[in-house]
Design brief:
The complex is a heterodimer. Chain A is mainly α. Chain A is built from 19 helices and two strands. Chain A is 78% helix and 1% strand. Chain A has a two-stranded antiparallel ribbon. In chain A, α9 crosses α12 and α12 packs antiparallel against α17. By secondary structure, chain B is mainly alpha-helical. Chain B has one domain. In chain B, α4 runs antiparallel to α5. The longest helix of chain B is centred in the last third of the chain and has 29 residues. The chains are: A mainly alpha, B mainly alpha. At the A-B interface, α5, α6 and α9 of A face α5, α6 and α7 of B.
Chain lengths: 492, 219
């Protein structure tokens, strides 16, 4: 069953992408991408239940290995992916009608969209850390092309920065992966399975600590570039703001998770080999620095999509900070935050896309009367920003509280204090903007714009799921996070 | 092949790769930079071949062949084609002076040689200087990417970084499983191809490949 699910998650969308690209399918490409995203979601949910009931699953020999941590990342990819697919049709139709996109860009968009989904879905299901690297690098190559789909100077600039910085980052991550292989050589020996997570984890306490230290710093800087950790984050606001909004939702909502996921795996191996202190210091440092860098940019931002991009830098910082603090509570908080951030950012970027198209501007000052002109996306935007600011009852309140509590409980009072201050500043900046856009009177000639049903659904679904897991989290949800935390807890 | 001979040969080739990297920092001509890069890749393939034969690892020999195909032939040919096609300046447009750039690179080499040599890493075939040399080649690649404003020159810098890494992988860390190697080369080729497409588009939109023009997105 797992083999079939993996085929649906990776090979099916890739094959469809190839068909759309070669046949230049225009009309059926949109519905096809929605249908395939639905299939991917079903496959991910089936895998979710299977992993929870029967423990980690393997398939195709040792190549596929899915545990609770992977299943969380995978499910988020497919949920956000389905919403982005639902949103794409009306979004692309609008841009085609306004001449921002050319007719031949439509099949390219859908082909790249499906290929992007497939490469992301491959990341959390493979066992071999080298193959995982190949999948993450493939996400860069495909998403770069999506960022530059508008053939303007700005989008080319964003895509070039993303390609150059992303390639350097990923190259450093590859060096870190090779160092890990090298560290494992004395215990596992030379074989294709030596980079398998299952084998590495089984022998991780015997990995050479000196080499693992070197490996981890390369992995952290490398994958950290893709996570958007400061100071390697400079490509992120550009790429996320220049991409078509459904793609921005995927980039911010779930692609960042894939890179975090990679860092999490290497973190455990490194802690097992060297003890916790080394990774703790690095992760706390990068986490706090990322939040601190994002705050001033959040405060002065006018461009709504750039603001959301900087907010991703901030929230990735929070997640990495929580992972650095460690311990059951903070790790639980980190995963909860990762889930909540995915759902919120996906809604926010899709809603921001509607707002940008409705007001024909990305500037928040022009979005007057947001709630009346586009009621559903407008309300989602306000709710989403409240959620990002960590207001109760949203899950981010719980996760940020868990992070701070965990910091104090682990005798890292200064981390708790610095974290509270920075998170509060960032929340204040976001709330200021939401007041700006929510309470302005609309222009006298403003007309209410109706979106398509699919677009409305794509914006509302993540909010509903977020409220569900925030207020009344189902038992399966909490158990899966607990299982994933158990994977992240080191052996020493 | 004797073990010692392969080990010495790899040491010599790695130093030669470092010198080629310094040459790429030095030259302002993109044509020469491509030639130097191709030569460096050839030396990399040679080092990998020695490592593969000495340790009897067919997958490293296969990786050497892949290196030869992708990095000695395909990537330089693609970039050469582009250089011929675009009526653009063949100047790397370094933002540092030639001498400053070279001094910086040599200083980096010396610092890294000292710090990494202080902790000897056991490599697959005893070539002890390979690891510090390869890390230095990687850093020089990054230096080229940062200090050269010409888009194609930045691509060459990235490829030098890749070469440094591959040197470490193939000789020190026993290479990667072959399927991973295949994936790496495929990704690399795709990334170079995307850069190929973008430089053409950059030329259409901005009329030059000077990345200084890519500075409108800020704040």
């Amino acid at each position: 069953m797992i083999a079939a699910a993996v085929l649906c998650l990776v090979l099916l969308p890739l094959a469809a992408a190839l068909v759309i690209w070669t046949l230049r399918l225009r009309g059926p490409a949109g519905p096809l991408s929605i249908a395939l995203s639905g299939v991917m979601l079903a496959a991910a949910l089936a895998t979710f239940v299977r992993v929870q009931d029967r423990g980690p699953q393997t398939a195709f020999g040792d190549w596929i290995y899915i545990d609770s941590l992977g299943v969380i990342v995978l499910t988020l990819i497919t949920v956000v992916g389905l919403c982005a697919a639902l949103n794409s049709q009306s979004y692309i139709a609008h841009d085609l009608a306004h001449g921002d996109l050319r007719a031949e860009d439509e099949p390219r968009y859908y082909a790249l969209f499906l290929a992007f989904m497939a490469t992301m879905a491959a990341v959390p299901v493979v066992n071999n850390l080298g193959v995982m690297w190949v999948a993450i690098e493939a996400t860069t190559v495909v998403s770069v092309l999506l960022v530059s789909i508008y053939r303007t100077g700005h989008s080319l600039e964003a895509a070039w920065k993303y390609l150059v910085l992303g390639s350097v980052g990923i190259a450093l991550a590859l060096f870190g992966t090779m160092m890990t292989y090298y560290a494992a050589f004395p215990t596992i020996g030379e074989s294709a399975s030596a980079l398998n997570w299952t084998e590495l984890r089984a022998t991780s306490v015997q990995l050479d600590p000196e080499v693992m230290r070197l490996a981890f710093i390369f992995v952290l800087i490398g994958y950290g570039t893709k996570v958007g950790l400061a100071p390697m984050h400079t490509w992120l606001p550009d790429a996320h703001s220049q991409a078509p909004s459904p793609v921005s939702g995927l980039l911010s909502g779930v692609l960042l998770n894939c890179a975090v996921y990679a860092v999490l795996r290497f973190r455990v191996l490194t802690i097992d080999a060297t003890g916790a202190e080394y990774t703790e210091r690095l992760l706390i440092g990068f986490g706090l620095f990322s939040i601190a860098i994002a705050v001033p940019f959040l405060a002065v931002q006018h461009d709504i999509k750039r603001m959301l991009g900087y907010s991703s830098v901030e929230h990735m910082g929070i997640i990495v900070l929580a992972v650095g603090v460690g311990g059951h509570l903070a790790l639980y908080a980190a995963l909860l935050h990762l889930i909540a951030h995915s759902l919120t950012k996906s809604t926010l970027f899709l809603a921001a896309g509607s707002a940008v198209q409705a007001f024909n501007s990305r500037s928040m000052h022009r979005m007057r009367g947001l709630l009346r002109v586009i009621p559903i996306p407008g309300a989602a935007l306000v709710l989403g920003v409240l959620a990002l600011a960590g207001m109760p009852p949203f899950a981010m309140f719980t996760s940020e509280y868990g992070l701070i509590y965990g910091a104090f409980a682990n005798d890292r009072a200064w981390v708790g204090v610095a974290g509270v201050l920075l998170i509060a500043l960032a929340a204040g900046a976001m709330l200021y903007h939401v007041v700006t856009i929510a309470y302005r009177e609309p222009r006298s000639n403003a007309v209410v714009r109706k979106g398509s049903l699919a677009a409305a659904a794509s914006i509302v679904i993540p909010v509903i799921v977020l409220l569900w897991v925030s207020i009344a989290p189902p038992d399966r949800f909490e158990r899966t996070i607990d299982d994933a935390v158990a994977i992240l807890e080191a052996q020493r | 092949m004797s073990y010692e001979f392969a080990s010495d040969a790899i040491d010599v080739l790695s130093i030669a790769m470092l010198i080629a990297a310094l040459g790429i920092v030095w030259t302002r001509s993109l044509g020469w930079a491509l030639v130097l890069f191709g030569t460096q890749s050839l030396m990399l393939a040679g080092a990998a071949l020695y490592a593969g034969l000495a340790t009897d690892s067919p997958h490293i020999v296969a990786a050497a062949g892949l290196t030869a195909m992708v990095k000695v032939i395909a990537a330089p040919a693609l970039l050469w084609l582009l250089l011929q096609r675009l009526p653009t300046s063949h100047d790397a447009q370094p933002s540092l002076g030639q001498r400053t750039g070279l001094v910086l690179a040599v200083l980096m080499a010396l610092v890294f040689a000292r710090t990494l040599d202080a902790q000897p890493f056991h490599t697959a075939i005893g070539a002890e200087h390979v690891l510090p040399t390869s890390v230095t080649v990687m850093l020089i690649g990054i230096q080229v990417m940062v200090t050269h404003r010409q888009a194609l020159s930045q691509v060459i810098g990235f490829l030098v970084l890749e070469n440094g890494m591959a040197l470490a992988a193939l000789t020190a860390a026993y290479g990667m499983p072959l399927i991973v190697e295949f994936g790496i080369f495929l990704d690399l080729l795709l990334a170079v191809f995307v850069a190929f497409v973008y430089t053409q588009r950059m030329h259409v939109i901005f009329g030059s490949l000077d990345t200084e023009r890519l500075r409108s997105l800020r704040g």
